[in-house]
From TrEMBL:
Catalysed reactions, semicolon-separated: cytidine(1402) in 16S rRNA + S-adenosyl-L-methionine = 2'-O-methylcytidine(1402) in 16S rRNA + S-adenosyl-L-homocysteine + H(+)
Protein name, UniProt field: Ribosomal RNA small subunit methyltransferase I
Domain RsmI HTH: 239-280
PANTHER family in the record: RIBOSOMAL RNA SMALL SUBUNIT METHYLTRANSFERASE I
Family named by the database record: Belongs to the methyltransferase superfamily. RsmI family.
Species for this entry: Dinoroseobacter shibae (strain DSM 16493 / NCIMB 14021 / DFL 12)
UniProt EC number: 2.1.1.198
Subcellular location as annotated: Cytoplasm
Pfam families: RsmI_C, TP_methylase
GO terms assigned for molecular function: rRNA (cytosine-2'-O-)-methyltransferase activity
Predominant place of localization: cytoplasm
Residue ranges constituting the Tetrapyrrole methylase domain according to the UniProt record: 9-212
An annotated GO cellular component: cytoplasm
Length: 284
């Protein structure tokens, strides 16, 4: 027998592509909720129609990046009245690159019970398929759309000792891969996963530099994209390798940016890399 939905806020994960990936508990919650809140109300309506869950006159509210405090207060009013409120993201797990963070925080501050019906997440599915290390990973969400911000973010992430996971738009994929190859290093193992769980699912694995070249020459891909970059090589970086990396970086950047790039590629301390850069610039 299905568990009765309790008063409070329940975060419900929805399929990232294949509608059959929804869980039985999620369907129970959608049937039993007093109020439904969705990042995209049209997507939730369609999902409920597919699975035969009627709206039956219940409130269906939109809550997304542009909703702001008024929408949050409306949801909180239902919660403080003791209503059973379900929040569903457009696709995947709520709060993973979606706007539910402020709603959950506000609900907790108001003393409202918050729970979740777990389910699909594109980042985790891509990690499982990637063949890259899974013992440690860092989900970085979407990189900044502007080149400067994107490159700065990549420099900060380069020394993370685990697999990096990014969401990316098809239009920015070429530029992001090119920046990743330059800043993180072209030899790192990487994966581009596209249209996961859908008809044209594709997982492309290769060194980061090869992927950058492949997508630079290809037509703009379609669909949702996850990019994964494996951790840098372990062990000591040879003096010759450090020299080569710095010489290449100094040819393109200021000393500060070159040092930051090489630190991201190698994980070496900034002081060590900076001293080596100064030595190269002074001809020693």
């Amino acid at each position: 027998m299905a568990q009765t939905l309790q008063a409070g806020l329940l975060l419900v994960s929805t399929p990232i592509g294949n509608a059959r990936d929804i869980t039985l508990r999620a369907l129970d919650a959608l049937r039993e909720a007093d109020v439904l809140v969705a990042e995209d109300t049209r997507s939730l309506r369609r999902l409920m129609e597919i699975h035969g869950v009627p709206l039956a006159g219940r409130p269906l509210l939109a809550y997304h990046d542009h909703s702001g405090p008024p929408a949050r207060q409306k949801v909180l009013a239902y919660l403080t009245e003791g209503q059973r409120v379900v929040y569903a993201s457009e696709a995947g797990t709520p709060l993973i690159a979606d706007p539910g963070y402020d709603l959950v925080r506000a609900a907790r501050e108001a003393g409202v019970a918050v729970s979740a019906a777990p389910g699909p997440a594109a980042a985790i599915m891509a990690l499982s398929l990637s063949g890259l290390p899974t013992d440690r990973f860092f989900f970085a969400g979407f990189l900044p759309s502007q080149a400067g911000g994107r490159r700065k973010a990549l420099r900060a992430l380069g020394a993370v000792p685990g697999t990096l996971i990014f969401y990316e738009s098809p239009k920015r994929l070429k530029k992001s891969l090119a920046d990743m190859a330059e800043i993180l290093g072209p030899g790192r193992d990487a994966v581009v996963a596209r249209e996961l769980t859908k008809l044209f699912e594709q997982v492309a694995a290769a060194p980061l530099g090869d992927l950058a070249e492949r997508y630079a020459e290809a037509a703009t891909p379609k669909g949702e994209i996850v990019v994964l970059v494996g951790p840098g090589a372990e062990g000591e970086i040879g003096e010759d390798d450090l020299t080569a990396l710095l010489q290449a970086a100094l040819a393109r950047h200021s000393t500060k940016d070159a040092v930051a790039e090489v630190c991201a590629q190698t994980g070496l301390p900034r002081k060590q890399v900076y001293q080596k850069a100064l030595a190269l610039l002074n001809g020693s």
